[in-house]
Design goal:
By secondary structure, the chain is of the alpha/beta class. The chain folds into two domains: 127 residues, Leucine Dehydrogenase, chain A, domain 1 (Rossmann fold, 3-Layer(aba) Sandwich); 139 residues, Rossmann fold (3-Layer(aba) Sandwich). Helices cover 35% and strands 20% of the residues. It has a six-stranded mixed beta sheet with strand order 2-1-3-5-6-4. A six-stranded parallel beta sheet has the order 9-8-7-10-11-12, with helices on both faces. The longest helix is centred in the C-terminal third of the chain and has 13 residues. The protein starts with 5 loop residues before the first strand and ends in a 9-residue tail after the last helix. The C terminus is likely disordered. The structure holds NADP nicotinamide-adenine-dinucleotide phosphate. The site of NADP nicotinamide-adenine-dinucleotide phosphate has 27 residues, from α5, α6 and α9.
Length: 286
């Protein structure tokens, strides 16, 4: 007798524009696994009950997206990484215990490794724009990789100061208008929502960056943001937000369906086609 089909889902509010079903259902089909991956629209006041009843609903785990990432931490046994970031995006049942992690961290790092090999070799300073949830994952990843100096530039400086308290003295908050930090940056990361469809453009001139600098973008709608376009025009190496989106999905799939999936050109093409088809819609939700 074959094993019963496993099911996972993405939980958000709203959740209709999540691309996670496209990614996981692509892998299920590719590996011939009899599983299912669905969307679950769950309002904030019902999230804790939903998480508690995950197994009863027939799920072996879930992705968690906006606005539930902090609530997911409280509703589960989070690992060290999710605790460090202060948010969880992946849940799984481990012999009846609901566990959680944050895979944005490895999604960010694995994508950089794939697109811009040796980006961290001799890296002195990194500059992270933004201090929201995504920036926390990025900073956690950079410090974990041994980057000793992470400048955090955020519109609301107080939020950057909070990250220094969370992650320690490797984090250096500076004012939003202070672009002098670009001159010796080996890595620039946009972890704000600026540049995303429907949002203002990121008002940043990449010319002061050194020629060896790598530019990483988290926004993936549009696929090529003005920041990426400017960096490429300058001949800088880049990593885009769609790459991170694909790599952050790998561990959830492995935990739920028992196979480490591959990030393929075919998967990327599928997502690009989907994003192209809804280019006029503001996306950005995993
Ligand atoms: P968030 O928690 O809401 O943080 C938003 C950040 O953008 C804050 O630092 C905010 O600054 C800044 N910001 C917003 N509007 C601004 C403006 N007009 N001028 C200057 N700064 C502004 O959002 P998040 O969850 O961190 O997500 C950030 C981006 O990362 C989104 O585009 C999201 O789609 C993307 N993301 C991508 C992936 C992926 O896999 N590629 C994964 C996660 C997130 P203040 O603190 O001053 O408000």
């Amino acid at each position: 007798m074959s094993a019963p089909a496993r099911a996972a889902c993405v939980v958000g509010w709203p959740v209709a524009h999540s691309r996670s079903p496209l990614i996981h259902n692509y892998w299920l089909k590719r590996y011939g696994i009899a599983g299912e991956y669905r969307r679950e629209a769950v309002p904030p006041e019902q999230f804790a009950d939903f998480a508690r009843a995950l197994a009863a609903r027939g799920y072996v785990g879930a992705n968690v997206t906006v606005p539930h990432k902090a609530a997911a931490l409280a509703a589960s046994q989070p690992d060290e990484r999710a605790r460090a970031v202060g948010a969880a995006n992946t849940l799984w049942l481990d012999r009846g215990v609901l566990r959680a992690t944050n895979t944005d961290v490895e999604g960010f790092l694995d994508n950089l490794d794939a697109c811009t090999p040796q980006w961290d070799r001799g890296l002195g300073k990194a500059v992270v724009l933004g201090a929201g949830g995504a920036a926390r994952g990025v900073i956690c990843g950079l410090i974990g990789r041994g980057v000793a100096h992470v400048t955090v530039v955020n519109r609301t400086r107080r939020r950057a100061e909070v990250l220094r308290r969370r992650f320690g003295k490797a984090v250096h908050p500076v004012d939003w208008a202070d672009t002098s930090v670009l001159a010796d940056a080996g890595l620039l990361v946009n972890a704000t929502t600026l540049g995303m469809a429907g949002q203002p453009e990121l008002p940043l001139d990449v010319r002061p960056l050194p020629g060896h600098a790598v530019v990483a973008e988290l926004v993936y709608v549009p696929l090529v943001t003005p920041l990426l376009r400017a960096a490429r025009a300058r001949g800088l190496r880049t990593a885009d937000g769609l790459g991170m989106l694909m790599y952050q999905a790998v561990r959830g799939f492995a935990l739920w369906f028992g196979r480490v999936p591959e990030v393929t050109a075919e998967l990327r093409a599928l997502l690009e086609a989907d994003l192209g088809a809804s280019a006029d819609q503001a996306g950005g939700i995993t």
